Amino acid sequence: MATIDIKVPSPGESISEVRIARWLVKDGDVVHKDQVLGEIDSDKATLELSAEAAGQVKLMAKEDQTVNVGDVVVRIDTSVAPAPKKEGGRSRCRRQERPHRALPLLLVHRTQLRWPKRCSMRKASALTK
């Protein structure tokens, strides 16, 4: 069983302890790498704790608990693999496959649009189809 410890990062030089503001995951959840696990508050900043690897989470501190910088607050069991992310039925890159044609309209006034002078009406009508 391989585990990774997530420690409290230092939000500043003079800060030695922080407060666990909230957890965004529950104990026992399976997370993906770089998923945000929770937030910590200090006098100077609010920081996010992210998963360094994919696996099952074990929370070592409770919400609203004060912990020292460098303390282990999360353990991730990397032997538990998360379910693969499902891709939707359609590709997100569909627009890149068929790029749209930008119409060469110019904004003359706030309410008036006109074609550029170099564009004939024949070209303009072909672009709108």
At the fold tier of CATH, the topology name of the largest domain is OB fold (Dihydrolipoamide Acetyltransferase, E2P)
Name the shape in a single word: elongated
Task: Report the total helices.
Answer: 2
| CATH class annotation of the largest domain | Mainly Beta
Helix content: under 10%
Instruction: Encode the helix/strand succession as letters.
Output: EEEEEEEEHEEH
CATH homolog superfamily of the largest domain? RNA polymerase II/Efflux pump adaptor protein, barrel-sandwich hybrid domain
Name of the CATH architecture of the largest domain: Beta Barrel
Mean pLDDT: 77
Pairing-aware structural class of the strands and helices?
Answer: mainly beta
Structure in words:
- The chain folds into two domains: 75 residues, OB fold (Dihydrolipoamide Acetyltransferase, E2P), CATH 2.40.50; 27 residues, no CATH class.
- Helix content is 9%, strand content 33%.
- The chain has two helices and ten strands; from the N terminus they run ββββββββαββα.
- Strands 1-8-6-3 form a four-stranded antiparallel β-sheet, with no helix packed on it.
Protein traits:
OB fold (Dihydrolipoamide Acetyltransferase, E2P), 33% strand, elongated, 4-stranded antiparallel beta sheet, single chain
Summarize the structure.
The chain is mostly beta strands. The protein has helices spanning 94-97, 121-128; strands spanning 3-7, 17-23, 30-31, 36-41, 46-50, 55-59, 66-68, 72-77, 106-107, 113-114. It has two domains: 3-77, RNA polymerase II/Efflux pump adaptor protein, barrel-sandwich hybrid domain (OB fold (Dihydrolipoamide Acetyltransferase, E2P), Beta Barrel); 102-128, no CATH class.
